[in-house]
Inverse folding.
């Protein structure tokens, strides 16, 4: 009887090395946002990750560590001022929603 061939680890199609991304909406390891974050990380992107509230924080922080993210922020995306949250060491999100790298 033939044994199934073990599947190789999936390879990312995109190379996002040197790119930065903001991931919102991770609640736990079952979140679609978490799946996206994993793929972005595996493709080489540096990620900033937000969590909704204190209840979500213990679920999100280990996932952020898995992605080697040093940028984990409390951000209530339902608040109108979310678009102007200062991500001081990562990037800034302006009112138009476009991302701009901080000036050096």
């Amino acid at each position: 009887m033939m044994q199934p061939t073990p599947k190789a680890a999936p390879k990312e199609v995109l190379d996002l090395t040197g790119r930065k991304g903001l991931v919102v909406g991770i609640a736990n390891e079952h979140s679609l946002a978490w799946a996206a974050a994993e793929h972005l990380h595996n493709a080489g992107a540096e990620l900033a990750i937000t969590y909704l509230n204190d209840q979500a924080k213990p679920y999100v922080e280990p996932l952020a560590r898995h992605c080697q993210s040093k940028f984990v922020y409390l951000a209530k995306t339902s608040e109108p001022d979310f678009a102007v949250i200062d991500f001081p060491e990562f990037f800034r999100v302006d009112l138009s929603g476009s991302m701009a790298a901080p000036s050096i």
Q: What stands out?
A: The first helix runs from residue 32 to 42.
